[in-house]
UniProtKB/TrEMBL annotation:
One matching Pfam family: Lactamase_B
Native organism: Pseudoalteromonas aurantia 208
Protein name per UniProt: Metallo-beta-lactamase domain-containing protein
Keywords: Hydrolase, Metal-binding, Zinc
Needed co-factor(s): Zn(2+)
InterPro entries registered for this protein in UniProt: Beta-lactamase_class-B_CS, Metallo-B-lactamas, RibonucZ/Hydroxyglut_hydro
KW Zinc (keyword) present: yes
Amino acid sequence: MILFAFYSILIRADFILLDEIDIIEGAMTFHIRIKIVTLLMACLCTNAMAVNFKTHKVTENIYVLFGQGGNIAIHLGEDGIYIVDDQFAKLSKQIKKQISALKPGFPEFVINTHFHGDHTGGNEVFARSGSHVIAHDNVHKRLLAKHGSESHYLPKISFSHDLALHFNNELAQVKHFSHAHTDGDAVVTFTRANVVHMGDLYFNLGGLPFIDVDHGGSVNGLLKALRAISLSIDDETVVIPGHGQISNKNQLLQYIALIEKARFLILQAMKSAKTEEQMVQLDPLSTLAITYANWLPKERVTRLFYRSLAQ
């Protein structure tokens, strides 16, 4: 019973995904028991260590907060505060302190770039403080399915294609790009400041991106979005990725070229690899001189690219 209860907590806190559930005839399998014990130990270790938050000033009004999860953009001005993404729920108190150190008060708006928990985990806490959450319609649908209709995780404002936010003497254009990283991605462009927050369309970590094929993401959709964004910015644009350090147009173009090369390698291998397992055995991405994160190893990237391009 304790393991079941802790499993429910992990799902709500976004430590584990709903599609990882493996329950048979009301009993938890040995695999899941081991996984939960491992996660419990990891959570205890994580809670014992303070997150090292770092704030980077982009302009007089825009800051980026690096912590644990997606990068947070903070916009300050005469009208108040608003942020882009809010990381995990467990960090909300600390994130509030980081924001208050820049300007007292709470964010009037929280814009979600997509539905993943490391970008929306703080929604409930901020909403209870008075913030209005903004996100794409598909983000609302996915958070509704996960948290229920009465939850404060849900966006109060949702949009289908784009939205304009006139606040702090800045025009923030929030634009949806379909079937890219997920089916609910939004990119936020601070037009006057010439700054763009790309969410997880851009992983600036030196490797290939996570494409959430199970939730509407696709290789071709991601490339289409990235190319469109690259054409809309200039050499002076400050690019905020979903993960990694602040970037620019030139680095974004290099990222696009890497994804295009990986796409080409997978498509070439698909001429002989007729199944996902055959693709893994061929290992077409081995020619790329890049590193992979522990949570996103080469095999997983290969499978996701194959599944997307085989559709």
